[in-house]
Design brief:
The chain has 136 residues and is of the alpha/beta class. Helix content is 39%, strand content 17%. It has helices at residues 16-40, 81-94, 111-124, and strands at 62-66, 72-74, 77-79, 100-105, 128-133. Strand 4 (100-105), helix 3 and strand 5 (128-133) form a beta-alpha-beta unit.
Length: 136
């Protein structure tokens, strides 16, 4: 006489691949941590600089304000177009890849003045600039 066995409806999940991956990740992080410790433990005499600034400091944005007569103002001082180019060229030299310029124009301003400021940015090599209308 045949014995009938009842099948259970539980699923058996094979845990072996997941355990293997956990062990591999554990070994990877242990080895990587060990190499980082070795790099820090080197006995070195590093030079010092009295005027050094951290590289993580963000450069100051330049705000160019254009009034309704098309005049340029930087830091509250009136600037001619030639002076505008000089200021931007100096800033681009100090921060060659990270200098940003915000050009704010009065609602009544001639947009040719804004286009001139944008052209100066391109001419001196500042690629990160924004032009907007100033809110009243």
């Amino acid at each position: 006489m045949a014995v009938k066995m009842k099948r259970s409806s539980t699923l058996a999940i094979n845990m072996t691949p997941m355990i293997d991956m956990v062990f591999l990740l554990l070994i990877f992080f242990l080895v990587a941590t060990r190499f980082m410790q070795q790099e820090r433990e080197l006995d070195m005499s590093l030079p010092s600089a009295s005027e050094a600034r951290p590289l993580t400091a963000a450069p100051r944005e330049i705000f160019v304000n254009v009034d309704q007569n098309g005049r340029y103002f930087i830091d509250g001082q009136y600037r001619l177009a030639e002076e505008l180019e000089h200021v931007m060229r100096q800033s681009a030299a100090n921060n060659p890849l990270t200098q940003t310029v915000v050009i704010r124009a009065d609602r009544q301003a001639n947009w040719q003045s804004v286009a001139t400021a944008i052209n100066v940015c391109k001419k001196v090599g500042i690629a990160n600039y924004t032009a907007m209308m100033a809110d009243e």
